[in-house]
Amino acid sequence: MRQYTSDLTPPWKRNKPAPEVPAEPDLVVEEVTTGFCGAVIRVEKTAQGPTVTLEDRFGKLRVFPMEPRGFMIDGKVVTLVRPSGPAPARPSRSASGSVAVPGARARVARAGRIYVEGKHDAELIERVWGHDLRIEGVAVEFLEGVDDLPAVVSDFAPGPDARLGVLVDHLVQGSKEWRIAQSVTSEHALVVGHPYIDIWEAVKPSSVGIEAWPRVPRGQDWKTGVCRALGWRVANTGEAWQHILSRVHSYKDLEPALLGRVEELIDFVTAPE
User: Which parts of the sequence belong to the DUF3097 domain (predicted)?
Assistant: First the structure.
């Protein structure tokens, strides 16, 4: 006797089984319903079935059930499954979130450079991006304000094999600093700015242990005003900065507006000739 199925969907309209892919650590996938894209952190067994934890490029974590056809890799639908055997060790990450290269020697310095406004800016960039910069051979130097930028750029003479990137504090359109930045920007020189009055403010308040950075009245020295409002020693802003810097352990302690600008400069000065 012929057996009949209750599924009346024509064979050509039925979903074909998706390829099964082991959810190995650091595999990058996209969840089909939400569009959340991230790297696999771990797989766990729960009463409702296995789940996978993903981490996006900003460090945000999301947990999803490992349902059939629930994810995409390179635009193709897949079914994530638990890895067989012990999970391989997850590559260590640098403070910037990039994959660390253990034991790698620093590359010979490029002709290209990144300039920042002051010593604190340089120290913060070294703290978070130091590993990446050494691997890429990019040196960071600092200015003492933006007024001397035209002369610095002229002396540097940026070109195809020696690109120059500059990070400026509190770059506001129409300001004197903005006009200076516009005057030196070229195919081989990129000036970008972040919205913070001082690089201190680019550190997340929660990382420093405060609710928010204090508002300092116009005309007052910003760092002195911050120290006074927070009850820190006003006479020693350098000591205050060392306290702030000590609370920065990775890119997660910095505001996104700074992260994007620094990454943009690194990409610019390391672009292929």
Answer: 20-83, 113-270
